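FORM 7B: Structural annotation worksheet

SECTION A. Query
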Amino acid sequence: MPCFNEEATVAEMCGRVLNSPFTGELIVVDDGSSDRTVEIVESLADDRLSLFRQPRNQGKGAAIRRGFSLATMPFVIVQDADLEYDPGDWDRILEPLIAGEADVVYGSRFGSGRGHRVLYFWHAVGNRLLTLASNMMTNLNLTDMETCYKAFRLEVVQSLVIEENRFGMEPEITAKVAAAGWRVFEVGISYNGRTYDDGKKIGWRDGVRALYCITWRYSPLVSGLGRRKRRIESIESIDSHDEMEGTLDTLDDATNYADWIHSLIEPHLGHHTLEVGAGHGTFTRRLAADRQVTAVEPSNSAITYATRATEDLDSVTLIHGDLSHLPDGQKFDAATFVNVLEHIADDADALRTTANVLTPGGSVVVFAPAFEVLYSQFDQAIGHYRRYRRSELAALLDQAGFDVIENRYINSVGAVAWFLYARVLRRTPTEAASAKLYDRAVVPVLRRLEQRFQPSIGQSILCVGRLRAAAPTGG
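SECTION B. Predicted structure
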């Protein structure tokens, strides 16, 4: 239940939810309320209720993202804290899920034959137009894409990475559910809409954002959502060993580039750092100059190189394996994923696992390739499952329990070069001659420029998160 300044209704709605025979847990996420919402929720005595407070107002999408990351019951339903949607409709919504016929169920306010309050004509027109546009992009046949009532199997919730902080998350969720091929049902619900005087918050700007999300940001024609599943399947059938080894060899010689990355992540590292993906060990040596480093590396060939590169360093512990091979109970001040997270099939799980091995307030530093539009045959050949947007990485870290403290694009010129080489010319962007020239001539100048001016595009993203403290709970 996301809520923001709902002191007039939150107690009654929590009571309705807790009185439902379907409620196993109620997760209330307060989105920085400035009224008595938090105080009221904290006064409610029920072991099934948990209250989590966002550090500041971020929007409904951010609150739902937080709630999804905490859900544990087999089915999850979004319930607003106002009185527009009635938990008495849950039996209809949950029926297809319980019967095993659906993975996701939408509660439609339109054409359901059930009662609803008559309100704004142009709101209804806008909702129907947005639903139509969404259906055209997703090839679904919904009547109410913008409905609050969306119910999911827990597996669906755990697979969703919600990037939108505000109401754009409605078309985003719909696009990602459709792209993943989940079974979608729709049932009619009642609706007691409220006016702006009653506290309604959505406005025309949210409609514009929703249209942008539908037609561009999460459009299968642009975002690559529709290709993601097929791409992963094809990657798994490729022997990328030789291509990846050649790339690591080239990057080993790109000393200016490596120094640049190291300078960006160094301020966020602690005394004992976990390096996920040691590669050939050249970057491990940089990390280990001022701290203890435990590095995990699953590749048989790479671990051999890494062992040779670090065998003279007492400050380095190498583990041949992945995060699951870390010693039980070991904790770290910080963890790094430098050009690694994109190689991990379940990136969200990797970040959650990392959060569990960090000390309170520990940091995670992710340096990863940017922009889906730059994804090329070369990315596929070296085992990249994906490229990222800043908002996508921020959402992943947020779901794993981190507050994002830095999130920026890096290497703006490299983004253009990658597009020309990898996408247009279909050449290897890390060819030795061109990579050396770029490292020696371009990187030093670009590094100085981007210290002063943060670019709006980049070949890579630097995203840093700090492990969130346990939130106070009520009930």
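SECTION C. Observations
The domain at 227-467 is CATH 3.40.50.150 (Rossmann fold). Confidence is low (pLDDT under 50) at residues 227-243.

SECTION D. Sign-off
Analyst initials: ____
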